[in-house]
């Protein structure tokens, strides 16, 4: 079990709030920095824009949810209409789009300007959309292209986008309204009213071209040039990261929207749109959990872990709208360096989704300890760790770790079936894409396997820690992963020669699809070999672990 740690907080005074450049006056949202004005529907919420997001310049969320009429297993759910304002700057979008291939995924730098509205759709909506209508018009005295986009194929909920693209002196601005298809006719007049209210206005602040090119000025040498970064003295690396953290803290509090509060703890800035009681519960938790992480993972590397930002949204819809353009649904995104959570009223008075908060904080901490762990840590260890750290919570002012009901129930199901996994298999490649989750039975088997990996990590931090072979196992496994991943990552960044034949192209595509499975397999096989355990050792540890599982 995790050692209990008292929550000792060094809280600063409530941060003073600056008057935002974008202000709400009688339903009018006016942004003099970006140069637009729009009348949003009554009672809608203005959503913060991520501090490094230069192209989404306005987000608005309906106060009401609408339910789809679909009732089958593959579709349905609720959706809140949204309005986004997207900027397409003429100078900025001349820049070459920087893409990076990692395994079977192409990553586009978050701050790369959108070339046009269709590029925005491609990078944010994903598959299943098509432009149903496109026409030229004049609105508010300027040229305007009107789009109607349908999102249908492979979509969990069919939606429709009504977008007006306004042409200004130095670029374009798109106003995009997103509603459910089932409620389109009802909501269309409200959306059209918002679109017709949109006006381009003079900017009070003219940004220099360098400020809108997508370069945020952040020092990311540890990712872009790892060898050069490692050559710097520890003190210099720490100084650079501290400079970044202070700049981000200041920037995150600037132009804080009405209703949001800011509070500094010893290691975090907590930005909250939740109620005071919930916010206090989060504040009481983050430093206690940080202390536990430092106690257990500080030795992974000599890197300085930057102070983080915890953003607490009012509800899941607000959190989804805030993070929507980050292309990352996890609670932590390495691009914006924020842990995003929300107040879940269904959780009772506390309303705390501890697992999301603590998993995000853990990912943030480990990413700073070494970014290679983010991608190269074998999946069984990653899954087990996330299940374990997700069980953390505050009880009576102390940090404890307890398995979730889902984990307990899954372990009991495995025990009743007499199907505990062999230890060597559990620490193997089963989770590297081998398990299917198409049917209910397959999903149940998957979660039973995941529960066992979480329990294994729990055992390593519990009674198993007394076993010499398992002492400090997780940290040693992380260090071993880093050592092996360095060469792999350097090789990946060197790229490869372009394919000259159809056969070579097919081979390259096959390699991309299997990249992470292959790399994870290589790493875990080498780490397993490096353990040097004989059959008797494997059998002994497995027997003790299975006895531990039976106590669930």
Name given to the CATH architecture of the largest domain: 3-Layer(aba) Sandwich
CATH topology of the largest domain: Protein Transport Mog1p, Chain A
What is the typical, i.e. mean, pLDDT?
84
User: What is the topology, as strand order, of the major beta sheet?
Assistant: 5-6-9-15-14-13-12
- Largest sheet composition: 7 strands, antiparallel
Radius of gyration: 25 Å
What is the assigned CATH homologous superfamily of the largest domain? Mog1/PsbP, alpha/beta/alpha sandwich
The number of distinct structural domains comes to 3
Low-confidence stretches: 1-24, 102-107, 208-217
Q: Which geometry do the CA atoms define?
A: globular
For the record, what CATH class of the largest domain applies?
A: Alpha Beta
Structure annotation, total helices? 17
Class inferred from helices and paired strands: alpha+beta
Q: For the record, give the distance between the C-alpha atoms at the N and C termini, rounded to a whole number.
A: 13 Å
Helical residue percent band: 25-40%
| Total strands | 23
Share in β-strands: 15-25%
Characterize the structure shown.
By secondary structure, the protein is an alpha+beta fold. It folds into 3 domains: 5-15 and 216-369, Glutaredoxin, CATH 3.40.30; 22-204, Mog1/PsbP, alpha/beta/alpha sandwich (Protein Transport Mog1p, Chain A), CATH 3.40.1000.10; 405-549, no CATH class. It is 40% helix and 21% strand. It has helices at 117-124, 184-197, 221-224, 226-231, 234-253, 276-297, 316-323, 354-369, 372-376, 379-389, 405-417, 423-426, 440-461, 473-494, 502-513, 515-531, 535-549, and strands at residues 5-6, 22-25, 28-31, 36-39, 45-47, 56-61, 66-67, 78-79, 82-89, 99-102, 105-108, 129-139, 142-151, 159-167, 171-180, 199-200, 261-264, 268-272, 308-313, 332-333, 338-342, 392-395, 398-401.
């Amino acid at each position: 079990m995790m050692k209990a740690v008292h929550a000792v907080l060094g809280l600063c005074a409530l941060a003073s709030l600056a008057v935002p450049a974008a202000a709400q006056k009688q339903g009018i949202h006016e942004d003099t920095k970006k140069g637009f004005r729009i009348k949003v529907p009554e009672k809608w919420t203005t959503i913060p824009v991520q501090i490094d997001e230069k192209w989404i310049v306005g987000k608005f969320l309906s106060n009401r949810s609408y339910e789809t009429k679909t009732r089958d297993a593959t579709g349905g759910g609720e959706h809140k209409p949204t309005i986004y304002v997207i900027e397409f700057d003429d100078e900025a979008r001349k820049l070459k789009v920087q893409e990076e291939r990692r395994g079977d995924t192409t990553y586009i730098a978050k701050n790369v300007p959108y070339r046009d509205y269709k590029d925005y759709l491609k990078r944010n909506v994903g598959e299943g959309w098509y432009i149903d209508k496109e026409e030229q018009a004049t609105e508010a005295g300027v040229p305007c292209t009107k789009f109607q986009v349908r999102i249908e194929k492979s979509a969990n909920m069919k939606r429709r986008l009504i977008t007006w693209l306004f042409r200004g002196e130095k670029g374009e601005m798109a106003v995009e309204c997103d509603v459910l298809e089932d409620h389109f006719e009802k909501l269309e007049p409200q959306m059209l009213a918002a679109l017709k209210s949109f006006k381009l206005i003079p900017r009070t602040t003219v940004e220099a071209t360098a400020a809108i090119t997508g370069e945020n000025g952040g020092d990311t040498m540890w990712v872009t040039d790892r060898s050069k970064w490692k050559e710097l003295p520890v003190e210099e690396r720490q100084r650079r990261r501290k400079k970044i953290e202070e700049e981000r803290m200041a920037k995150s509090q600037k132009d804080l929207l009405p209703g949001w509060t800011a509070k500094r703890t010893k290691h975090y800035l907590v930005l909250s749109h939740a109620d005071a009681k919930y916010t206090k519960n989060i504040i009481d938790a983050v430093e206690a959990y940080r202390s536990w992480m430092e106690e257990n993972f500080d030795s992974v590397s000599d890197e300085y872990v930057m102070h983080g930002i915890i953003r607490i949204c009012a509800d899941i819809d607000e959190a989804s709208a805030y993070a929507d353009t980050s292309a990352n649904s996890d609670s932590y995104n390495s691009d914006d360096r924020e842990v995003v959570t929300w107040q879940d009223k269904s959780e009772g008075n506390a309303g705390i989704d501890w697992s999301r908060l603590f998993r995000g904080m853990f990912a943030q901490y480990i990413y700073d300890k070494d970014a290679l762990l983010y991608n190269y840590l074998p999946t069984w260890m990653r899954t087990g760790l996330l299940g374990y750290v997700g069980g953390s919570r505050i009880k009576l002012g102390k940090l404890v770790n307890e398995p979730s009901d889902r984990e307990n129930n899954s372990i009991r199901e495995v025990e009743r079936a007499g199907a505990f996994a062999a230890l060597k298999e559990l620490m193997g490649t089963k989770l590297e894409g081998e398990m299917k989750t198409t049917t209910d039975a397959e999903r149940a088997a998957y979660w039973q396997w995941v529960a066992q990996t979480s329990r294994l990590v729990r055992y390593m931090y519990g009674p198993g820690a007394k076993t010499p072979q398992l002492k400090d196992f997780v940290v040693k496994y992380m260090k071993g992963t880093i050592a092996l991943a360095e060469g792999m990552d350097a090789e990946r960044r060197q790229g490869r020669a372009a394919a000259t034949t159809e056969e070579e192209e097919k081979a390259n595509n096959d390699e991309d699809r299997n990249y992470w499975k292959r790399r994870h397999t290589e790493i875990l096989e080498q780490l397993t070999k490096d353990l040097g355990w004989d059959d008797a050792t494997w059998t002994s540890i497995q027997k003790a672990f299975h006895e531990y599982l039976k106590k669930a």
